[in-house]
Design brief:
Blueprint: H1 8-26, H2 31-48, H3 53-68
Helix pairs in contact: 1-2, 2-3
Length: about 70
């Protein structure tokens, strides 16, 4: 898989949403901000899933790991 399969705008959105989530986690933001950041990442993952399944799968595993620890 290459990242070129998904549109640059979608990949930028995906990485931006991931960065927002990691920032919220690092700064221990309140649950509402964490939920919004997680939901934003999940939406971005869904947008690239068909064009970049391996990339989407990696981010899905991150989301699953966060869910497993209650986030």
């Amino acid at each position: 898989e290459t990242m070129a399969a998904a549109s640059p705008a979608d990949m930028n959105q995906l990485t931006s949403r991931a960065a927002q989530l990691l920032t919220a986690l690092r700064h221990q933001h309140d649950a509402g901000m964490l939920t919004a950041a997680r939901d934003g990442l999940e939406e971005a993952v869904m947008r690239v899933e068909s064009e970049a399944p391996v990339t989407a799968g990696a981010f899905r595993r991150l989301l699953d790991a966060l869910a497993n620890i209650g986030l």
